[in-house]
């Protein structure tokens, strides 16, 4: 299996929505999020990530299998969304996307990459820990992280969540 990483374009957005919708099924029955109610990343947010040069597609055999998108917050980069179509999961696509995303942030001169994820599912905080990310202590949350958390609190229990960071 060959994984090819490339920058996303606006034309990729419909497939990225399909991938996000499919990947969300991994949370079915866990009681962490209401997957029926979950909004997909907006076209506007995809556009911002593409414009910022922080939107990556992983192709497997010529088909988009996963994506990672982010946003700049001052010196830092936030990994906003990472999804791999279930048909391509557990084959290294997610790890390849995270590694490439961190490389991208480094090339853009970022100081660190941050993300917010669930603490317990093995494909969330434990997955990122294997890739070098470490938990951020609550007292060290930056103002923009608190703003993200305030939004999240409208639709999920933030006690199940953790912010993580890796220096680049
Ligand atoms: C998170 C996600 C992108 C990982 O993609 P992936 O292509 O399956 O990840 P990889 O194949 O690179 O797996 C990397 C490691 O995580 C582990 N892992 C991935 N999915 C797992 C699962 N469902 N159960 C247990 N371990 C899992 C792998 O075993 C692997 O560990 P290893 O290197 O020790 O073998 C994918 O599970 C997904 O789309 N999940 C739903 C959306 C989501 O949770 N996104 C992240 C939110 S912050």
Report on the structure:
With 168 residues, this protein is of the alpha+beta class. The protein has one domain (3-167): 3-Layer(aba) Sandwich (Aminopeptidase). The chain is 30% helix and 28% strand. The protein is built from 5 helices and 7 strands. It has helices at 13-23, 43-51, 93-107, 125-130, 143-152, and strands at 3-7, 55-60, 63-73, 76-84, 112-118, 134-135, 161-167. The chain has a 7-stranded mixed beta sheet with strand order 1-2-3-4-5-7-6. Strand 4, helix 3 and strand 5 (112-118) form a beta-alpha-beta unit. The radius of gyration is 15 Å and the shape is globular. The protein starts with a strand and ends with a strand. The mean pLDDT is 96. Residues 23, 26, 82-84, 89-95, 115, 117, 122-124, 127, 130 line the site of coenzyme A. Residues 23, 26, 82-84, 89-95, 115, 117, 122-124, 127, 130 line the site of coenzyme A (COA).
């Amino acid at each position: 299996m060959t994984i090819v990483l490339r920058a996303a374009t606006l034309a990729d957005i419909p497939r990225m929505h399909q991938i996000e919708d499919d990947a969300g099924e991994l949370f079915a029955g866990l009681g962490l999020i209401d997957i029926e109610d979950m909004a997909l990343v907006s076209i506007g947010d995809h556009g911002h990530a593409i414009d910022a040069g922080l939107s990556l597609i992983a192709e497997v055999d010529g088909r988009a299998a996963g994506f990672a998108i982010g946003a700049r917050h001052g010196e830092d980069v936030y990994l906003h969304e990472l999804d791999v179509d279930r048909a391509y999961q557990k084959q290294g696509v997610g790890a390849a996307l995270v590694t490439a995303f961190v490389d991208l942030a480094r090339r853009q001169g970022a100081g660190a990459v941050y993300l917010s994820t669930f603490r317990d599912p093995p494909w969330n905080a434990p997955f990122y820990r294997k890739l070098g990310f470490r938990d951020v202590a609550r007292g060290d949350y930056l103002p923009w992280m608190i703003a993200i958390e305030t939004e999240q609190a409208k639709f999920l229990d933030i006690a199940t969540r953790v912010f993580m960071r890796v220096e680049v």
